[in-house]
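[[Encoded backbone]]
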Amino acid sequence: MPNNSPNRQPAVVLVADRTLSARYKVLFEGIFATMQTSKAPQIAMRHLLSPKMHVDSNGRALAAALGIRRVQSSILDQTQLGPDDVVCTTPEALGGLLGPWTKMVGVSSSDPLGQGMSNTTTTAFWSGELYTARWTRQMMEQIKAAKSKFDFKVVAGGAGAWQWARSPEVIESQGIDVVFEGYFEQLGPKLVTDIIEDRSVESHIVAAGTSAEGIRPITGASMLGIIELSRGCGNGCGFCTMGKVKMDHLPHDTILADLQTNVSAGFTSVVSGSEDFFRYGAASGKVNFEALRSLLEDMKRVDGLGFMQVDHGNISSVLQYEDDQLREIRRLLTWSQKSDFLWVNMGVESANGHLVAANGSGKMAPFDPADWGDMVRQAADKMVRTGFYPIFSVILGLPGETPNDVSATLKLVKELVAKNVVIFPIFYEPQTAPADAFSVSAMTADHLELYTVCYENNFKRVPDLFWDNQRAGGVSWFKRALLQMLGKTEVSAWRKNFRQIAKQIAAREREAGK
C-alpha cells in the first residue's frame, strides 16, 4: 500500500550508475564519458565530461536514465505504489533517500564491470579502470553499507545486467539480491510487489521479449532526452544483447508523450532510441517508409524541439530506401537547430559477410551475404548524398576470423575513409565466455594497421562532428573549445599507445619465428 511518509521517504529508490546520471547535452558526450578510464582525472570527469545531474529539494533527479524512468512508470502503473513511493535519484543524492522505510533499491548500468565491447577496446589501449566500473562499484559499496543498516533488497538490471549474471562473486561482494535481465514491464512489477510484501524472490530473473504491450509513458525527463522508438532487433547477432529479441515498435501516442515530457522539462535536444531507426513501423526486415515519415511528421509538430540525433541504423535497411525517401527523412529530422553532421551508427563488423552470418547475424537480409562489402560501400554513398553522416563499426577477432578477413576489412576501411565517414574498431567480447574475448595479445600487424587507419581517419573527422553536434545541442562555445583542446592531447596519447603495441607485436612475431 502507498505510504504516508514525508516526501523523502520512498519505498522504492531507482538509481543509475554515475555515467548514466549526468547532464550531457548530446549523445557523443555520453559516449565519450563512458569510454574514459581513471587515466583521465576524476575532477575533469565529474565537472567537464560528465557533470552531475541536478536533483530537486527532495532528492529526485530532474532527468534520469530512460531505463529507470521506464521501471518507474511500470511500477506506478501495475502496483499500488504512488508517486511518492517510487523515485529516480542520482548516486550523489542516494544517501539522503535511504532509511528504514526503504524496501528496494533498483540499480541500472550499461557496463557495470567494464566488459562491454566498446569499452574493453578502450581499456586495451589505456591504463587504469573504466569509470563505468569504478563509479558503479563505489555506488554499490554505498548501497551495501546502507542495506546492512536498513535491510532492503537490491535489484540490479539495465543493459549491462548480463555482466553481473556471469559474475557470482561480484553479486555477493556488492550485496545484490536479484539480477534482472531484460525489459521490466512483464515480470518486474510482480517482483516489486513481492519485495514490498516481504515474500521470497528469485535471485536471477530473465524476462524474454520486449514487453512492448506494457510500456507506459515516462513521468519525468530522461537523460539526454532519449525517446524510445522501438525495442529489440531480432537480427540474431551473437555479439549483441538485442540480437535474439524481436523488434517491436512503440505507438505514436507513447513516443509523443515522452517527447513532450522531455521538451517540457527543457530538453531542446533529444535522441531517438532504437536498434534500427530506419526500421520503425516495419513488421519484418522490410522497411516501412510511410510509418517512419508519419511518426517524424507528428514529432515535428511538438513545439520547442531544436535538434534530434539518431543513434543506430542498419545497412540493409538503408539500402531499401530510395534516395528521395532518405532526403525526406533527413528533412523531417531538421528542427530549429540545423546540423551538418547528422550521424547514424551502423555495424559493418567485417568485410566478409559470410563470417558475419556465421556469428548468428541476419543483418544482411534480404540481401546475399556474399554482397556484403558492396552493400557497405553503397550504403555509405547513399547516406552521404542524402545528407546523413555515416559512422561505421568493425569488430576485430570475430570467431572464425582469418588473416584474409582482416586484410579484406582493411581494404574496405581504406575505401570508406575516402567517402567522408567515421569508423570505430571494436574488440570482440562474448557475453557468455570471457576467455574467448579478443585482446591486444592476439593482435597481428594487420589488426593494428586496421585499427590505426580507422583512428587516424577519426582524428581528422570527429572533432568537426563533435563541434557541430554540441553547437546544435546548445553547448557553450567555451566548453566546446576546451574539449577540442583536450581531444588534441588524447590524439597524441593514442598515437603513443599505437607505437608501443606495434613494438609488442613485432617482439611476439620475432619470438614466434625463432
Q: What stands out?
A: The two ends are 73 Å apart (CA to CA). The first strand starts at residue 12 and ends at 16. The first helix runs from residue 27 to 34. The domain at 220-236+245-338 is CATH 3.30.750.210 (Transcription Regulator spoIIAA).
